[in-house]
Amino acid sequence: MIHIAFDAIYAHPLPENHRFPMLKYELIPGQLLHEGYITAANLFSPAPCTASTVLLTHDADYLGKLMHQTLSPSEQRKIGFQQSPQLTQRELIITQGTIDCCYHAIQHGVALNIAGGTHHAFANHGEGFCLLNDMAVAANFLLRNGDAGKILIIDLDVHQGNGTASLFANEPRVFTFSMHGAHNYPFHKEKSDLDIGLADGTETDAYLQQLHEALPAIIAREQPDFAFYLSGVDILETDKFGKLKVSMEGCLQRDQFVFQTLQAHRIPVCVAMGGGYSPDVKTIVEAHCNTFKTAIALYS
User: What gap in Å lies between CA 35 and CA 14, rounded to an integer?
Assistant: First the structure.
């Protein structure tokens, strides 16, 4: 059975000024339930991540600022959210949700977090709407516990996973792969193990060709035994900030290729949603739901 982490939104609602960027996370599970792709049995509610687990990745001073609401105004501007206890609690729950998904994926092949993919968070600061780097924390947790030996992070959000790249720059057990807009945020890129920077206006066929060339080669060379997949839908041609021209069908084909490739190599995968900023929230929800539907079709 496919497991989906979702309670980070419903059980801990955010202040009104945080709600619009998060609206899609409320709509995705409702849509999947409405269409009959999942039932309540597929959904699970994570607890908050413990401080000791967060500290496998993030600095104690930074975590203390999040917990005690002492981020400076400039630190809050860099993140893009005004600090609040609810926001910190939500991040801790999202992070634990990704960890929990890892273990469901090890058992069932795949698990998905309706939130997560906070790849702009560094060890000592957050930025780009990211406070804690959930995939990095989860990867370090797996490595610490001996539940993975070589991890592949597949980051297909339109924005480079700069925080993730920085966190694992000196960790040979984690291979970071980011395929993103070359001229998009963040404008100072960190160095992933493999970065593919795409030109503005890259269309579906060119996008998929580069992915088809890169991913199997990485797997053949690195031989990972666990993968994370950040399935951002800000690659869509409708996205306000993406600058690429990938169609809805192309985004679906991307997901199918990633899942089919990992499944063929028997590599369990934990998935998080990442970005999506099309003007019509229905477009965002459809694209994200396609990721879930693809996983359900292949792994059920």
Answer: 26
> Phi-psi category of 232—alpha, beta or left, where left has phi over 0 and alpha has psi -120 to 50?
beta
| pTM reported for the whole predicted model | 0.95
- Do the beta carbons of residue 259 and residue 293 sit within 8 Å? no
CATH class of 3-299: alpha beta
Residue type, 281: V
Residue 235 to residues 15, 81, 158, Cα–Cα distance (Å): 28, 23, 5
Residue 25 pLDDT: 82
> How distant, in Å, are the alpha carbons of 3, 14, 36, 94 from that of 82?
31, 11, 37, 18
| 43-44/110-113 β-pairing | unpaired
Q: What is the pLDDT of residue 14?
A: 46
Extract the tokens encoding 275: 């970005």
The pair of structure tokens assigned to 91 is 């991040």
Domain ranges of the chain: 3-299
Whether the link from the prior residue into 15 is cis, omega within 30° of 0, is no
pLDDT single digits (tens) 241-296? 999 999 999 999 999 999 999 999 999 999 999 999 999 999 999 999 999 999 99
